[in-house]
Write a structure and sequence with these properties.
Chain B: Residues 12-57 form the Siroheme decarboxylase NirL-like HTH domain. The complex is a heterodimer of chains A (163) and B (162). Chain A has 163 residues and is an alpha+beta fold. Chain A is built from five helices and five strands. Chain A has helices at 3-18, 28-36, 40-53, 85-93, 124-138; strands at 56-63, 72-79, 98-103, 115-121, 144-156. Classes of the chains: A alpha+beta (163), B alpha+beta (162). Chains A and B meet through helix 1, helix 2, helix 3, strand 1 and helix 4 of A and helix 1, helix 2, helix 3, strand 1 and helix 4 of B.
């Protein structure tokens, strides 16, 4: 097995071992190393490599939005001209109240929207005020829009790959 | 949403604000993070444990971008008739590939009311998961794979009163 294959295998085992969370013990990387039968130095080196490559987006706390005061969560969706979506998406994604922004395909005739921007706030009114700011920014490029508020979390486990 | 918000105090709030990313990779990372927060290592560990138990945090650890490992995340939706809600919800949530699932309602009454994220280890796994959901629910799955991600950063500061 090449060194690259060995690293990839260890990365995969690290994902499986940490996808539910990092051990809450003083030396978590040592605990993982012991569990996986490798050295703590290797665990830390692979985690650093995955962070650099972007396989790990970040390491830290994932708050429950509701618990930290963001009780309203609106998925705003927009129908904008395809040739403008890159520029408009970049401008909307840069707004400080937009946590995610994506260009996605339409599903006509049911779903005419090609730009999605997630907006969080303490109330529906606040989210709608922010959505109005997006509408203003889009101007004449907005041909149709909708806001879908989440009314219930049905599942939130995050990524789960088989061990 | 309908659940009651669990209580958090000023220290919890500082921990959440400070630790949404950048958790160190070193021998005693909790000690290093605790020092920056001006609290003891064991207090940080106990508070993280408690916030996970009370569901203030949904997770603590690395957040993976599976695309970089050959996998895929895809947002998808179903138009679920109200009378069939419980059955469809159980069928969808039973799949391990379903990472998140939200009920959503729009002012314009779009029939797409169940929105979930599929996370699979391979790109091919998405089509298989969609087939499985269609077979289990009898409903067509609308998939909205991202064509472009503009900017994604966790940037929500804690708002609850301390």
């Amino acid at each position: 097995m090449s060194a690259d294959d060995a690293s990839e295998q260890l990365d995969r085992r690290l994902i499986v071992a940490t996808q539910a969370g990092l051990p809450l013990v003083p030396r978590p990387y040592h605990a993982l190393a012991e569990q996986l039968g490798v050295s703590a130095g290797e665990v830390m080196a692979r985690l650093n490599a995955m962070l650099e490559r972007g396989t790990i987006r970040r390491i830290g706390a994932v708050p429950n939005h509701y618990a930290i005061g963001y009780t309203a969560n609106g998925m705003s969706v927009w129908d904008v001209p395809d040739e403008r979506v890159e520029e408009l998406g970049a401008r909307i994604g840069a707004l400080d109240f937009v946590t995610h922004a994506y260009h996605r395909p339409r599903a006509l005739p049911l779903w005419p929207y090609n730009l999605f921007a997630m907006v969080h706030g303490s109330s529906r009114e606040e989210v709608l005020t922010k959505v109005a700011q997006i509408r203003e920014l889009l101007g004449a490029d907005c041909r149709a829009s909708d806001v879908l508020f989440s009314t219930q979390i049905l599942k939130k486990t995050g990524l789960r790959i088989a061990g | 949403m309908r659940e009651a918000a669990p209580a958090i105090d000023a220290v919890d709030r500082r921990i959440i604000d400070a630790l949404q990313g950048g958790f160190p990779i070193c021998e005693r990372p909790y000690a290093a993070a605790a020092e920056a927060l001006g609290i003891a290592e064991d207090e940080l560990l106990a508070r993280l444990q408690s916030m996970l138990e009370r569901k203030v945090l949904t997770r603590f650890g690395p957040m993976f971008q599976i695309e970089r490992m050959g996998g895929a995340f895809v947002l998808a939706a179903l138009a679920v008739p109200e009378a069939d809600w419980a059955r469809v919800n159980d069928a969808v949530n039973a799949l391990p590939e379903v990472a998140h699932n939200y009920r959503r309602e729009s002012d314009l009454n779009t029939p797409l009311n169940m929105w979930f994220v599929l996370a699979t280890e391979t790109k091919e796994g998405i089509a298989a998961a969609i087939d499985e959901i269609e077979a289990a629910t009898g409903l067509p799955v609308y998939a909205f794979p991202k064509l472009k991600e503009f900017f994604v950063e966790m940037k929500l500061a804690v708002r609850s009163a301390a």
